[in-house]
Amino acid sequence: MSKFVPNKVYLRGILLHYFIQKKSAAEAHRILVQTYGDNALSDTTCRDWFRRFKNNDFELEDKERSGAPKKFQDKELEQLLDEDPSQTLSELGKILQVDESTVSKRLKGLGMIQKQGHWVPYELKPRDVERRFGTCQLLLQRQKRKGFLLEQLLDEDPSQTLSELGKILQVDESTVSKRLKGLGMIQKQGHWVPYELKPRDVERRFGTCELLLQRQLEQLLDEDPSQTLSELGKILQVDESTVSKRLKGLGMIQKQGHWVPYELKPRDVERRFGTCELLLQRQKRKGFLHRIVTGDEKWIHYPWLEASSLYLVGSAECNLL
């Protein structure tokens, strides 16, 4: 028994039948392969004929070809890409009956580029922009929602382990670890801390360092107020300009090689006041003229009272009081 071999026109008629039944080109091609095997039309050919049927071209016979290359409209190429953006230059050229270089030029003219085997517009269309924008918004909302909950847990107790955080968030430890890395958190001494400090943490640490430096500087000056800027800088491991600024901040000035407060502290005021009182009391006790001698209406300070009871100044004789 001879085997029936369908010709192209016969198969095209079957395609027209499936087109009228509103089947897709892929479904029609699959049925032809199941029925006629190797004699079936290719998938590309089926798509080409379905495209003709959509354009109200129901002529099943081949049209006469002229020697000149076929010209096609950009709409035809766009329609093919809308149906299947993964088609190669060779496949598009066969359908449009032109060479690959012509298809490539037309694709460049349409602003199409190939990414991951698909032809996509170099500049997104408005609908694609909206679609991507919506996707980004959803991702940001999910990111904020998850990140906020994790940050809140760490604010409450930064010493929680990956296992404990995973149980609360109902995810595995690897997911928690990735989220922590995404937030820029690292573990130090059993606590989760930001790898890059927040502004408030920077201010807090800066204030702490300033306070420690101030205390160390005050302690050094109490031990030895005659130390130079260079010596203080070496001890504190900072440069001289930093020491100078800190001393000015403390209100310290240098007098006779000693660092003293420009404005006396309460304890220094009390100390000086006490010293003045002692001097006044001693002065009152010994008398104001205790160390003063007179002679020829001149006042002379003479500290060695016990040396002699008689002393000459010039040619005048002075009596000791």
TrEMBL record:
Gene3D superfamilies per record: 1.10.10.1450, Ribonuclease H-like superfamily/Ribonuclease H, Winged helix-like DNA-binding domain superfamily/Winged helix DNA-binding domain
UniProt-recorded Gene Ontology molecular function terms: DNA topoisomerase binding; double-stranded DNA binding; histone H3K36 methyltransferase activity; histone H3K4 methyltransferase activity; single-stranded DNA binding; single-stranded DNA endodeoxyribonuclease activity
Which domain of life does the UniProt lineage start with? Eukaryota
GO BP, one annotated term: DNA double-strand break processing
Annotated InterPro entries: Mos1_HTH, RNaseH_sf, Transposase-MT_Hybrid, WH-like_DNA-bd_sf
One GO cellular component this record assigns the protein to is:
nucleus
Q: Which residues cross the membrane?
A: none
Residue ranges of the Mos1 transposase HTH domain?
8-57
Cross-referenced PANTHER family: HISTONE-LYSINE N-METHYLTRANSFERASE SETMAR (PTHR46060:SF2), MARINER MOS1 TRANSPOSASE-LIKE PROTEIN (PTHR46060)
What name goes with this protein?
Answer: MOS1T transposase
Q: Which organism is it from?
A: Pseudoatta argentina
